[in-house]
Amino acid sequence: MKSSERTGIQLTMLTVNVETLLWVIVVCSLALGGAIGYIARGPGSQHLRLWAAAMVLHGVAYILLDLRGNIPDFVSIVVANVLLIGAYALIILAIARFRHIPVPGWVLGLPIVAVAVVFALYIDNQQVRSISISLILFLQQIPAIYLVLRRNGEQGQGHLLLAGALTVMAIIFLVRIVTFMLGLVPTPALATQGTIQVVTYISGIIALLLASIGFLVMVKERAEHLLRASEQHFRAFFKRSMVGMATIRTDKHWIEVNPALCGMLGYSMDELRQRTWDDITHPDDLAVSSRNFERVLAGEMDEYELDMRYRRKSGDIIYAYVAIRCLRHADRSVDYVVALIEDISQRKQREMELAENLEKMNVLNRRLEEADDQLLQSEKMASIGQLAAGVAHEINNPISFVSSNLNTLTRYVQGVFEILDAYEKVASGTNDLKALAQVRAMKAALDIDYIRRDTAELLAESKDGLDRVGKIVKDLREFSHMGEAHWQWTDLHQCLESTLNIVWNELKYKCTVTRNYGKLPQVLCLPSQLNQVFMNLFINAVQAIDTRGEIVITTQPLGTDAVQVSISDTGSGIPPEIINRIFDPFFTTKPVGKGTGLGLSLSWNIVKRHQGRIEVTSTPGKGTTFVITLPIEPVAQAEAGR
To answer: pTM of the entire structure?
Structure first.
């Protein structure tokens, strides 16, 4: 057989098998898409999923091309070629995402739009369609090749294979453009492709297969590169870390230890490897350490953190912060345990020093509080001493009229007893009309009816007087009582009235007291200390009044969590130049013997202890107003009571 005849037979066979060749492309594309999609099912594989989608679109496009004549031309020609161009756009996007290189949107979208427009307009022009699709496919290979070859330190065999395959595909499309444009070959229907077309299809299949393999190899090379880099980084970090690090077997023997841990414990690496985790653990911490270690191995928890004590080679004890994590295989079996050990001995030493200093400060604070309480008590007693004459007068008045009433009652009782004695004599003797008349005369002279009325009045007055004395004594006892540490829920109006009762003798001759009491809730406080504040303000107010004036007490709630007590006077007021000093310790404008200069200073401290505030406004010649704001339930005391 002649060579020309053999060539004709081979060309005929190629022409006859075009349809089979198309289905080979379909099968290869869908198989590649499925295989790569399966590989890309894990996280962080978006680039592989894009490539898998491209292969699936490529296969679907060729299915539609092969069905031409059985389905509408618009679908088998326009839609099929749009899908084909879209597949290559996804390939470009996959490479760009893998290389972390941004790609303009028009590079991906413009070819798809161009194919859709051209094929829709020239759906019946085979030559225009063939040249257009080949040109666009050729142009798509250019950015793909550029993205692959752009250097970023990750070049390898996969890059070369992918770049080579894309270059072959670009050459194939370029050859088809030239042959179509120069008329070297006709542009026959798909089912009657010539030799050049068949060869390009076969080359395209091989190139696409190699491109996919190259992309997979490129992805694998990067993963291996990142793994090596990660291992090198970890190795460098492990060796150079200032924190102790180790890997431990499940039997608590060391796998690896870093220099920092050896230096921390005073062992060489060989010496430390001959010991176990338990060998260096302080005996008192061994039970806790073992229990948590076993729980991690059992999978009850992934990791734990503890402050532990360890024994150095020298026998010294160090404190360390320990973080333990268990690493497992895919089947959840234990691979090894990672331990991070940080020496916190200095921190623990500082904590102990801080604890000691804190205890010393607490002792000093307690002493200061005791001194403050003693000072407060001294000021309280000094205030009572200054008020002693007035308090004595307040007590003496009711005692005086009670004493007078008792003298009168004594006379009444003696007269009544004399009449009773006379009646007994008459009752025990005979009917002596003269003696009976004498008894009646005694009764008339004594005026029994008057005595009966007057006795009830005398007893009632005496009872009121004794009640007044009892109230003054009770208020004095509560006022001077050393009960500052006893916080209790208290009615502030009762505190005000109790204090007014004590200082009343100082107030009643110089001023009137006006009460504008609002509806107050009970307040958690130290009532005896607030009594001291109120007394200081009352005394200051009355001493500021020269002849006759008024003290106004106003109370009101502030929202739901505070109350306010305002004490105003119509006295001489406070000069502006000293109003900022009135709460300073020992500051006073009173003459010697009239004040200690501690009253307002102590009042400031008491209100501050109650987490409140005391404010003052004054106008010289018109008067002064002190406003005390108190929380209903101070936070610290509320927490302490829970």
So the answer is: 0.45
